[in-house]
Amino acid sequence: MAGKVKLYYFNGRGKMEPIRWLLAAAGVEFEEEFLETREQYEKLLQGGSLMFQQVPMVEIDGMKMVQTRAILSYIAAKYNLYGKDLKERALIDMYVGGTDDLMGFILMFPFLSAEDKEKQRAVIVEKATSRYFPAYEKVLKDHGQDFLVGNNFSWADVHLLEAILMVEEKKSDVLSGFPKLQAFKARISSIPTIKKFLEPGSQRKPVPDDKYVETVRRVLRMYYNIKPN
Amino acid sequence: MSGKPRLTYFNGRGRMEPVRWLLAAAGVEFEEFFLETSEQYEKLIKDGVLMFQQVPLVEIDGMKMVQTRAILSYIAGKYNLYGKDLKERALIDMYVEGITDLMQMILMFPFSPPEEKEKNLASIKEKATTRYFPVFEKVLKQHGQDFLVGNKFSWADVQLIEAILAVEEKIPAVLLGFPQLQAFKIRVSNVPTIKKFLQPGSPRKPPPDQHYVETVLKVFKR
């Protein structure tokens, strides 16, 4: 099998960030190639490396994997972060589906018009506090365990922590009213691989800035503003 | 375990249709509860059965499952339509995710404003014929096997035939230039469980019409 894991994406969070989190959580080292120019992207396209002409792309175990969810599922299963059986996997998939939807609101944020950004910030906080966080608060309260599924650290925990931190960047006190999630956040942040990833100098990417947005627009020739959904 | 799976959704395709296809492909009978009023939807929320206040909901093996992808992965895993190992599962996941991106465009189409429909249709055609269909044409050509992954019928095949038929409904000649996909379509249509699902009277839902769109908007109070 062999070889390093290599990520192809922009130098920023976007759709690749959950993959960085999960690899880091699993203690897996990885390399990154950052797309900066249109030419680089076209070279990848012409080389046939991007199955649907899109990034993220991750070279792993001899495969050129695309489609974020497929990549994450593969990593989770390979590194035993996917539960012990089909039913635990079903729970993990459900929970990850929810946090993925929540992070989707944040993902498009940098590409909105200034006016839509203000509205979207409120939408993010509303969805987090009325739809998503209550669901996970309840899961933790009902079973009283440290982790979301099967009393074992899994992909679902990594994904939820990532989502919590991202929403907190938009509203710092968003976890008030969610005591279980506060404790969860502290607990998961202390897991050695996660703790390491949260330290400066790790491969975690910062909040997207104008430079990131410009780069994505330039490389993908995506000059329109996204409309919020 | 405890009886047939029970699907809760609108009486139409939407996000539930791939679930109907996959259960049917696996030869699994299921029941359906159709949402018609916002009161029914609000009751489901109040009863706490919708984890994120959304449908699809599938009650299966004692679980109240939501999130389409989670539901489909569970069914595929349970009924051996998910490949034989991690690498085959990775391929199936990649193919299914790509097809789902294409199906998303079709899913949203009935809800787009009239002045955008022509542009959206052109976009569906372009993506189908330049991004998605060529990939699967190439996969089939390269290995020369009957099915997309591991020489065995899987979730990926079911998802692809659903997408082909859905695009053909909008663009009848779309498979012109894709001989492998034409043969694939015939072959998979003849898999006994699929053949049965394609016959009138099956749980397969018709293309979304105005009534369907109105029902969805009414239930969600939009």
From TrEMBL, chain A:
Transmembrane segments: none annotated. PROSITE patterns: GST_CTER (PS50405), GST_NTER (PS50404). GO terms for molecular function: glutathione transferase activity. Its EC number is 2.5.1.18. Pfam families: GST_C_3, GST_N. Residues 85-209 form the GST C-terminal domain. GO terms for biological process: glutathione metabolic process; xenobiotic metabolic process. Residues 3-83 form the GST N-terminal domain. Keywords: Transferase. The keyword Oxidoreductase does not apply. The keyword Chaperone does not apply. Signal peptide: none annotated. Belongs to the GST superfamily. Alpha family. This is glutathione transferase. It comes from Apaloderma vittatum (Bar-tailed trogon). The lineage of its organism: Eukaryota, Metazoa, Chordata, Craniata, Vertebrata.
TrEMBL record, chain B:
Belongs to the GST superfamily. Alpha family. InterPro entries: Glutathione-S-Trfase_C-like, Glutathione-S-Trfase_C_sf, Glutathione_S-Trfase, Glutathione_S-Trfase_N, GST_alpha, GST_C, GST_superfamily, Thioredoxin-like_sf. Residues 85-209 form the GST C-terminal domain. Keywords: Transferase. Its EC number is 2.5.1.18. Pfam families: GST_C_3, GST_N. It comes from the Eukaryota. The keyword Cytoplasm does not apply. This is glutathione transferase. It is an enzyme of class 2 (transferase). One of its GO terms (biological process) is glutathione metabolic process. GO terms for molecular function: glutathione transferase activity. Residues 3-83 form the GST N-terminal domain.
